[in-house]
Amino acid sequence: MKRIMIPIVIILILIAIIIIRPKERIEEYVPIKFVEARIVDRGLVQDRVELLGKVVGEKQVTITPEVMGRVVKKLKPEGGYLKRNEPILVIQNDLVGFEYKKSYVRSPISGRLARIFVDVGQRVSPQVPVAMVIDSRNLKVEVGIPERFAPEVEKGMEAEVLAGTDSRRVRARIY
């Protein structure tokens, strides 16, 4: 029995030495980075934030027809200028058994025809918006500002607005 125990004890001691033995340390090479320092000139520092917004007119009207019927014709293209009371769409009521005169959807204000919500041939009723007209002399851009920038924004500050697909730059004021 002693013959078997002595080799087992020697094997256990060797295993313990291998496991407990201190491992070699490998040092990593970290390259030194050099930086350049400069003296800063005094001047204006501008902060720039790009946001998406919605352009709305100070006066804008969503128009609904006075009668129900089918849109027969669009008289003005989107983006075109309208005078007050100028017709935009022609509507014909096509109920069987009756004969109706054509009805016109007119602009209640002067401005640009921002949007026509219906197509020719579509049925409309007085509850359905058919067009939007915006007085383009005074426009607003409604923008949500992230909370972290809110303390830096003040009434009267200048802003630059990129307008349209051709990216025209327009100066504006925050109010």
UniProtKB/TrEMBL annotation:
<protein>
    <recommendedName>
        <fullName>Multidrug resistance protein MdtA-like barrel-sandwich hybrid domain-containing protein</fullName>
    </recommendedName>
</protein>
<dbReference type="GO" id="GO:0015562">
    <property type="term" value="F:efflux transmembrane transporter activity"/>
</dbReference>
<dbReference type="GO" id="GO:1990281">
    <property type="term" value="C:efflux pump complex"/>
</dbReference>
<dbReference type="Pfam" id="PF25917">
    <property type="entry name" value="BSH_RND"/>
</dbReference>
<dbReference type="InterPro" id="IPR058625">
    <property type="entry name" value="MdtA-like_BSH"/>
</dbReference>
<feature type="domain" description="Multidrug resistance protein MdtA-like barrel-sandwich hybrid">
    <location>
        <begin position="60"/>
        <end position="134"/>
    </location>
</feature>
